């Protein structure tokens, strides 16, 4: 059986054809999923990103015919969605760090100990990274440097820095972040009461 063209699929999707949408999903998910996996190395996040991209296409199906190159559109959407997730995580870490550092003096000794244990676990996670990844992750997370600034400091291209940063963060998240957050949970819970 002849494969339906992208233009026909998009036209049918814009008219609300669920079968055309299913065909688009089945056609592109096998290639899109490994691409997203290479960015984030987190199965749950990868699945969320792929699902959200296709949900967005269906929700905006009236404009589906505006998509000129489906593959390019999907890959660009995946990359942008992943970058948005990184920004969101960075903002969350900044808020937590600011609240912790601004109120640590008024905490109980138990909360200070929990905070120190969380920092120790974070340091252990960093220590498991390769030296270059560790330096790049520390420059980004602790010093708040941009990719361009890190690139200048370490003498590597922005793309290499970005790849090392994202893979380093994914490694930390996959190995140790759960332990780290469990230690911080009592402190975060305490701080959110104010």
Automatic annotation (TrEMBL):
Stretches assigned to the RNA polymerase sigma factor 70 region 4 type domain: 124-170
Pfam families cross-referenced by the UniProt entry: Sigma70_r2 (PF04542), Sigma70_r4_2 (PF08281)
Keywords, alphabetical: DNA-binding, Sigma factor, Transcription, Transcription regulation
Keyword Chaperone set for record: no
Residues passing through the membrane, by range: none
Superkingdom: Bacteria
Biological processes annotated in GO: DNA-templated transcription initiation
GO molecular function, a single term: sigma factor activity
Domain RNA polymerase sigma-70 region: 24-90
SUPFAM superfamilies noted in UniProt: Sigma2 domain of RNA polymerase sigma factors, Sigma3 and sigma4 domains of RNA polymerase sigma factors
Homology family: Belongs to the sigma-70 factor family. ECF subfamily.
PANTHER family assigned to the protein according to its UniProt record, in alphabetical order: RNA POLYMERASE ECF-TYPE SIGMA FACTO, RNA POLYMERASE SIGMA FACTOR HI_1459-RELATED
Protein name according to UniProt: RNA polymerase subunit sigma-24
Species this protein is from: Niastella populi
